[in-house]
Amino acid sequence: MLKELISRTQRNHGLEHATIHVLSEHHKNFSAQGNSTHNGFFLNIYGDLSEEAVEQAVQEAYTRMKNGEHHLAVHPNCGTVLLTTATMVTLASQTALALEQKRQRQATPSVVTLLAALPSAVLAGVVALIVARPVGLALQAKYTTSGDLGNLRVARVYKMRPSPVTRLFKLLLAAGSDLKTTAYRVETVFN
Q1: CA-based angle 74:41:171, to the nearest 5?
Q2: Would you say 5 and 38 are in contact if contact means Cβ atoms under 8 Å apart?
């Protein structure tokens, strides 16, 4: 049961990414953010895209994935990549600090230790930023998405009221602008 729920979520996550890829191929000057569940995904569009454009993108993404374009399931701006990057940068920087603290034989970090560790921590952070992207993409491809839709079928696509999270993302993406924000729900079923 749990394995099936995870598999469904991975396939919906892949279709969500494929939809964003297709939208990006056909439209400019918008941002998209989504999240997937076992029975579909939510898609928030920040910009001026029609409901018809979103519906067409979902259908095109579905068709292309069913025809073998499984690579569309992986997206470079996925939360998996962002989380991997944040984790690796934090661990690298903390490791640099801990090594400097150990080198200076201090039980607790001091301002001097922090200043001495800063160049190493910055360098470690930059290296982690470079390495994290391909690692995050690989983790995404292996664990959080699936390009094989299997028996997934799109049931319906409809507009919905933007959630508080959607409105928060709008603030972060375009504070002070009159950027149009539209939320969609894509429901899927498995035969």
Answers
A1: 90
A2: yes
47 shares its domain with 87: no
Host domain of residue 51: 2-76+145-190
pLDDT digits (tens, 9 = 90+) for 97-155: 999 999 988 888 788 888 989 999 999 999 999 999 999 999 999 999 999 999 999 99
Q: At a CB cut-off of 8 Å and minimum separation 6, what does 190 contact?
A: 8, 150, 151, 152, 153
> Quick one: tokens of 133?
């992207």
Average pLDDT, the chain: 94
Sequence-distant (≥ 6) Cβ neighbours of residue 13 within 8 angstroms: 36, 41, 73, 144, 145, 146
d(CA 128, CA 16): 27
Q: Are strands 181-190 and 40-46 parallel, antiparallel or unpaired?
A: antiparallel
Residues 132 and 156 reside in one and the same domain: no
Domain shared by 48 and 86, yes or no: no
**pLDDT score recorded for residue 110:** 84
Beta bridge partners of 43: 34, 184
Q: What is the rounded end-to-end Cα distance, in angstroms, of the chain?
A: 16
Identify whether the C-beta of residue 141 lies closer than 8 Å to the C-beta of residue 75.
Answer: no
Total domains in the chain come to 2
